[in-house]
Design goal:
Number of strands of chain A: 5
Oligomer: homohexamer
Number of helices of chain A: 4
Strand order of the largest sheet of chain A: 3-1-2-4-5
Radius of gyration of chain A: 17 Å
Largest interface: D-E, 21 and 25 residues
CATH topology of chain A: Tetrahydropterin Synthase, Chain A
Distance between the termini of chain A: 26 Å
CATH architecture of chain A: 2-Layer Sandwich
CATH class of chain A: Alpha Beta
Number of domains of chain A: 1
C-alpha cells in the first residue's frame, strides 16, 4: 500500500505573551525577556498540516484538500485568528503559549477530526526564522 | 557510513483537469468542483527531488547535482512542461492527475534512473499552499 | 495631502495557450514555441493590486483591504480561477493571453470598480521569474 | 549624477487593535471586524526601507547599509518590536494603528535621521498578502 | 499608447571583496569591515531586469521574455556567474564591487542590447535583506 | 514523553572553490566545471538547525531559541560568514567544501554544544534550488 503525504498551509494572526504564573516577575523577565511584555506582542503564525495515507483509487486523493482546509479553518483559524492566545483561548489560560505548546495544542485539536488511519504532522512558523514541528510522538 | 540528503528544485507549467471517467458528470462536479472544468485549468508545479546516500570521498558529492538536474529535465520537465497532463502524457490518459498521483508518477519515472543505493523522495507543490510528498513507501 | 499605496495579493490557477489566429501554425510555433501547445498548459498566476490615495482620518484606511479583497475576488478570481483563459473568458477569445495582455485586461476590469480618486496599479506573476506590471499609463 | 536606490529589510513583531475611540462599539465592530478585538491580535511586520541618491565615488555606497540597519534598529525595532502598538508607543495612543498609519509614522521617525539629500521610501508588510508603501508624498 | 513593464529574474553566484586601493588597510577595515576580507567572500546575487514599453499587437509581447532571458545570460550570467568579481571581470579590477556599483555595471552592459524605445530598470539582491535598484537616472 | 522539533534559520555569505588536490587540473575541471574557478565564487548559505526533544514544563521550551541562535552565531556564523571556506577555515584546507561536506562539518561543530538528549539535524541551502541535510546518521 503506497503512502503519500498531503500538506496544506494556513495562517492566523494572534497576540500572546510568554509568562509562567508560578514565577516572580524577575524570573519571567530573565527567562522570557521581551517576549514577557505584559501588554503582549504578536505574530503571523503560518501553519502547515500534513496527513499521510494511501491514495483512494476512485478520487486519486489521500484526503480532499478542501476538507482539510475546512478542518483547519474550523479548529484552528476560527478560535486563534485575530485573538489573544493568553486571554481568548481555553488552553493558554493556564499553559504558556510558546511555539512548542501551540503546535501540540493544534495537533490535539486536529487529531480527533482526521481519519485515524492517516498520520498527522503539524508545522508552525512563529517567524520566518523560528519554527516548530509535532507529529504526535510520545502522546 | 554517514548519510546525507541532497535536494534539487525544478518547475514545470502544465494544464490539467480532475475527472473520473467511470463517474457521471454530476458525481465529478460534486467531488472535484471547479477542478473538473472540462476546458482545463493549470499550475506552476514546483518539484523538489531528494536523494540520500553516502558522500563519495573523492568528489565530496552524494550525487552530482548537475546530473540530478539533467535527470529531472529529461524525465519530468521534457514530458510535463507546457503540456496538458490529461491529453499529452501517457500515464494520465487513464489516471486522474491529482497531486498525489502526479508525485507517484514522477517518483516512478525517476527511480530507475537513479543509483539504487540512493533513497529517493519527491515533493510536489501544486500551489504555494497545497503540496504532496512520496518516498516510495509501499511500492 | 499625504498619499499612501495599499496592496493586496491574490492568486488564480488557469490554463492558456499563446496563439495568433491570423498566423500560420509554423509562424505560431516559431514565435510562441512550447507556449503554443494546442492542448494548453497552465500557471498559478499571482496578482498584486495596488491603490494609492489619501488616508481617511476616521478609519485610518486608504481603502478597506477587505473591500479590495472582495473586488479582486468578484472581478478577477471568479472569472479566471480554474478556467481556460482562451476558451472560458470573453476577452481572450480574440486577444492572445500573454502576461502583458492579461495584466491590462485585469486593470480594465478593476478600474471602474475602484474610487476614481485612487490610482490603480496591477502586478501579475506568471511564474516566479516572469512578471508584468500595468498602471494605466497610455489608456 | 546617477541615482541608485538602496534597500534594507527588517522585521518587528507587535500586537495591535484597530479602534476609533470617537465611535460606538457597534460602529467599531462594523468597520474593523475581528481587527477590533479588545484583547488585541498581532503580526510579524516586515519593513523595507529604501533610500535613493548618488554613489559616493570613494566608498561605492549610496549609504552604508550597516548604518541604515542601525537606524532602523534604533528608530523602529527598539520602540516597536515585541510591543503593543496601542499601549506601548506614543503615536498610537491616539492614532489608529492601521498599516497605513504605521508606515507614515515609521517614515516620519526615520526622515530626520537620514541625509536630506537622500529620498526615503518605506514599505510595510502586515501580512504576506497585505502591504503599504509611503515615500513622503504630500507631507 | 499603453505601456506595460515586463520583468525577468535570474541569478549568479560570485565572490567579491570591498576594497579601495587608494586607502590604507586600516581605513579599508574601518569602512568595509568583514566585507574587506582579502580572501574574499561571496553571494547568490538575484537579478530582476525590467523593460517598459508598448505591447506589440501581433505577438501580445512588450519584449519576448525568452529573448530577455538570453540577453541576461549572455551579458550578465556568462561573465559574472561562478566568478570572482574583483579578479575575473574588467569593470571591477578598478571599481569597488559594492551592490550599487554592480547594479550600474549590469545596467550599462544591458542597455545597448535592448531596444532604445524600451525603458530599462535593474534590481539586484545581494542578500534577502539588502538590495539596490537602478533605472539609468542621471546617466 | 511528547517530542517536538524546534528550528532556527541563519545565514552566512562565503566564497569557496570545489577542488580535489589529488587530481589533475583537467580532472578537476571535468568533474567540478565552473565550480572549480581558482579565483573562487560564492554563495549566501542559508542554514536551518533543528533540535528535537521534550518540552520543559516550566518554560514551555524544548530549547530556548535565543540560546540556539547564539550557538549558531558562535560556532557557524563567526567562523564562516564573510570568509573564504577553502582558505579561512581549518576543516576545508584539506576537505572539499561541497554542500555535503559543509553540512557535515556544521553538524559536527554544533553537536558537542547541544544537550545530548536532543536530536540534531542541519539543513543547508547553497542556492534556492540546491540544498542538503544531515542528521548524524552513520556518524
Amino acid at each position: 500500500m503506497m503512502k503519500v503525504t498531503v500538506s496544506r498551509k494556513a495562517q492566523f494572526n494572534a497576540a500572546h505573551r510568554l509568562y509562567n504564573s508560578a514565577w516572580s516577575d524577575e524570573r519571567n523577565d530573565e527567562v522570557f525577556g521581551k517576549c514577557n511584555n505584559p501588554n503582549f506582542h504578536g505574530h503571523n503564525y503560518t501553519l502547515t498540516v500534513s496527513v499521510k495515507g494511501t491514495i483512494d483509487p476512485e478520487t486519486g486523493y489521500v484526503m480532499d484538500m478542501k476538507v482539510l482546509k475546512e478542518l483547519i479553518h474550523e479548529h484552528v483559524e476560527k478560535p486563534f485568528d485575530h485573538r489573544n492566545l493568553n486571554l481568548d483561548t481555553e488552553e493558554f489560560k493556564t499553559l504558556n503559549p510558546t511555539a512548542e505548546n501551540i503546535v501540540v495544542v493544534i495537533w490535539k485539536r486536529l487529531r480527533p477530526n482526521i481519519n485515524p488511519e492517516l498520520e498527522l504532522k503539524v508545522l508552525l512558523h512563529e517567524t520566518e526564522r523560528n519554527f516548530v514541528e509535532f507529529d504526535g510522538e510520545g502522546v
